[in-house]
Amino acid sequence: MAAILNVAELSSKGLSRRQVLQRLAALGIALPAVASTVAACNEQQPTVTAQTQPTMAGMAHTQTAPSGAGQAAATTAVSGLSRLPLPAVAPPVGKREPQLVRVELETREVQALIDDNVGFTFFTFNGTVPGPMIRVRQGDTVELTIKNHPANKTPHNIDLHAVTGPGGGAKYSVVLPGQSATFRFKALHPGVFVYHCAVPPVPMHISSGMYGLIVVEPPEGLPPVDREFYVMQGDFYLNGTRGQPGLYTFSLDKCLAEQPDYVVFNGSVGSLSGDRALQAKVGETVRIFFGNGGVNLTSSFHIIGEVFDRVALEAGTIWSEHVQTTTVPPGGATIVELRLDYPGDYVLVDHALGRMMKGAMGVLHVEGPADSEIFQVVTPGTNLPSGH
Predict the structure, then answer these.
(1) How many separate domains does the chain show?
(2) Domain shared by 198 and 231, yes or no
(3) pTM, full prediction
(4) CATH assignment at residue 100
(5) What is the 3-state secondary structure (H, E, C) of the chain?
(6) Which tens digit of pLDDT belongs to each residue from 278-327?
């Protein structure tokens, strides 16, 4: 199957199949589950067919940069694919008593665009990257059911950083295609926490899109704001060349070398720009739940042309004010809040700005009246697109 660990590749590095299985099992998942993942590598795959929506995984993929007729064929192979849909922001919990909250997630292996004419085999929760936002109150009991879509080829599970329990739930939630598992946990700590798949090889599952956020509100709830947004950064590693048309899968070698082809917000280049840009108005206060799925890179989250009024450091209970850039490690999150005082397009970036060229940018589009007391152009310079 596409996007599965290449055992032959590892064997060529001096590791036997037995050694591969032993090393993967040492990461914490039962050996049969690992063997199922490895066995899936050798299955025959169906032919690519164009569809109007992201398709279930299991197609052939392009591993080398095509040219001429090959490039045309590669473009045709992804012509029916689209970008993944954006996940919704879960509504605020507000002030209420603790209760039982049931959550259901389905793991789906889908193929969609990560860039124009560039397809990728994503591993997802509910078909989006990031997965659905889970939102509960501190003290709630959460009953979580995870299902593995029967058309998938690999086992999956879930590790929630908000869980106090073995593996954050991962140990007891491994599901093969067609299976489901359920566990309960109490949300003991307020904050914003990452969840992700933890089936070996863990970096492959995370870097293929299997991450999301669970927001645990304090008993009194969060202060009201006009708008909330949900953004996560991820680094992606392709068996191919960045920007070259074709359908690609995960590259273990690039991931281990920490050399991503793409660093993006919400699953693809341009996923938060154009008609998918974040929308707000002058005078509004907005809150962004920002997480970093990783799997390798630390984010320096910044909005060009704005200052965060408040930042929940590491998404905990300590807030800092008047912050320009905030650091979010892999597997970490934050909350930023800001009042919008002037219209324009404000660019979300990882301020390791080389990553902009790999896709790490989005747009917060603000409409409304301009206040010359806040900003005005006295003598304009040359109009040169700069990414700002």
Answers:
(1) 2
(2) no
(3) 0.83
(4) 2.60.40.420
(5) CCCCCCHHHHHCCCCCHHHHHHHHHCCCCCHHHHHHHHHHCCCCCCCCCCCCCCEECCCCCCCCCCCCHHHHHHHHHCCCCCCCCCCCCCCCCCCCCCCEEEEEEEEEEEEEEEECCEEEEEEEECCECCCCCEEEECCCEEEEEEEECCCCCCCECCEECCCCCHHHHHHHCCECCCCEEEEEEECCCCEEEEEECCCCCHHHHHHCCCEEEEEEECCCCCCCCCEEEEEEEEEECECCCCCCCEEECECHHHHHCCCCCEEEECCCCCCCCHHHCEEEECCCEEEEEEEEEECCCCEEEEEECCCEEEEEHHHCCCEEEEECEEEECCCEEEEEEEECCCCEEEEEEECCHHHHHHCCEEEEEEECCCCCCCCCCCCCCCCCCCCC
(6) 999 999 999 999 999 999 999 999 999 999 999 999 999 999 999 999 99
